[in-house]
Write a structure and sequence with these properties.
The chain is mainly beta. The protein is built from 1 helix and 31 strands.
């Protein structure tokens, strides 16, 4: 595993506050900042990323230990006050770093970043969570300082017990000519009861101004094969300089990105109308040299252009005896049919339909009905226990309305049940719920 780092650094100042990038970001320099993923609950190989801490695959980690895990809720003998969580991503096998801070405050992370660009704005961010269950008393909170070249430049303060991941981040500018930084993460709170945290999604990226894209057209970005070319324009805000360099890029059908045109052009014309998906973006940096360094340039927002094909092939099925409406035709036999249409984008479309007309397989069902228990009561019910025959995927309708297979709270009356399979074959059943006789009490005249 590539070593990952985390730091919070703002411009040299006595009073520092965290502030994430307000514009667009470049590629993450630490590609393994999410700690990767794996099917093992605990990563068995020591990644060697926590200076002064022991890597221990036994759970739960003791004071001064850390481990890489994808789910603390699966640990044997977990602390009762600890959260059972997964990493902060959509990957169920994604790893996170869990740290049980040592008894004495001190450094538990150090690394060096190389090949940076001088005079460039960067953002450092990471997701952090307090591992103690919210509301737990007598457990101290984590408190982390971040050092640059040995100097403390930012302290998080106490990380609260919220049970939620929080992003902590800041921006800083490198000095002119500066190309490397020593970054250190330091624990301030004492160990013992509490002071336990997890880290994920460590990110170190170049930060730049807002980099948006304007499409110079009032048409949708879904285009026809016969559409006119459209212009996409770069919009960079608050660059602080007129010399910001730009390089347009394009990806076709989710393929690799390739450069377009010459550096410095603030617009590009999309004039390809071969059906497909086209993504556009531009890279930007403070000068042409930095534009060539992936650690110095930012990435704009994306614009997606889809060219809709004129020729469309469709395959569908219908039940015998049920006409299939295709344009102005009503089809009843299997075959290949071709017709022209105008799409929702006002594109000319040629549709080739392969139609399969399937035999009407009878549909049977076991239906159990229960009359209301008393006169004018509404506690009757209809239950469709089993459905046989047909082609599956049944839709149930009762008196023309889509319904579940069990319908309670019914009054007396007639109910029409239609069962329709996935190809339109259907069968109708009639169910009558009877109204019980009214209970009438007759009392004779008074007698002396």
């Amino acid at each position: 595993m590539v070593r990952c780092i985390i730091v919070f650094f703002v411009l040299m100042s006595a009073c520092l506050t965290a502030q994430v990038c307000g514009g667009n970001l470049g590629e993450n320099i630490f590609t393994d900042g999410d700690f990767g993923c794996g099917s093992d609950n605990i990563l068995q190989v020591d990644p060697g990323i926590a200076t002064g801490y022991r890597y221990n695959v036994q759970t739960p980690p003791a004071d001064g230990d850390y481990l890489i895990t994808n789910n603390s809720g699966l640990w044997q003998g977990a602390y009762p006050t600890w959260l059972g969580i997964t990493d902060n991503s959509d990957d169920p096998d994604g790893y996170m770093m869990v740290v049980n801070a040592s008894f004495d405050p001190g450094e538990f992370y150090r690394d060096t970043v190389e090949n940076l660009c001088g005079g460039t704005l960067y953002e450092f961010s990471a997701d952090i969570i307090n591992m103690i269950i919210p509301g737990t008393t007598d457990h101290s909170d984590p408190n982390v300082s971040f050092l640059l070249n040995g100097d403390i430049l930012y302290t998080t303060g106490n990380v609260p017990k919220t049970g939620e991941w929080e992003k902590y981040g800041f921006t800083f500018s490198t000095e002119p000519g500066q190309s490397s930084l020593i970054l250190t993460l330091q624990n301030n709170a004492p160990g013992g009861i509490g002071n336990d945290l997890a880290l994920d999604n460590i990110s170190f990226r170049p930060c730049g101004p807002s980099a948006e894209i304007s499409v110079d057209t009032d048409k949708t970005i879904r285009l026809c094969e016969e559409s006119d070319p459209i212009t996409v324009t770069a919009i960079l805000s608050d660059t602080g300089t007129d010399d910001f360099s730009i390089q347009w890029q394009r990806s076709i059908d989710n393929g690799p990105w390739s450069d377009l045109g010459n550096p410095g052009e603030d617009f590009f014309v999309h004039d390809i109308f071969v059906p497909g998906d086209y993504l556009y973006r531009y890279l930007s940096a403070s000068n042409d040299a930095n534009l060539l360094n992936t650690k110095c340039r930012i990435i704009s927002d994306l614009v997606a252009i889809q060219v809709v094909p004129r020729m469309v092939e469709v395959r569908d099925s219908t039940c015998q005896g049920i006409p299939y409406i295709f344009g102005e035709s009503s089809l009843t036999e299997s075959g290949v049919y071709i017709d022209t249409f105008i799409s929702s984008l006002n594109c000319d479309s040629i549709v080739a339909l392969t139609l399969d007309v399937l035999p009407d397989v009878p549909i049977t069902a076991e239906i159990v009905d229960m009359d209301p228990s008393c006169f004018q009561y509404t506690d009757g019910s209809i239950s469709i226990r089993t459905i046989d025959g047909g082609y599956g995927g049944f839709l149930v309708e009762i008196n023309g309305l889509e319904s579940e297979r069990f319908v309670p709270d019914l009054s007396s009356g007639s109910y029409s049940i239609m069962l329709t399979d996935q190809y339109g074959c259907n069968e109708t059943f009639q169910i009558d719920l009877d109204n019980p006789d009214e209970l009438v009490v007759s009392i004779p005249d008074d007698i002396s």
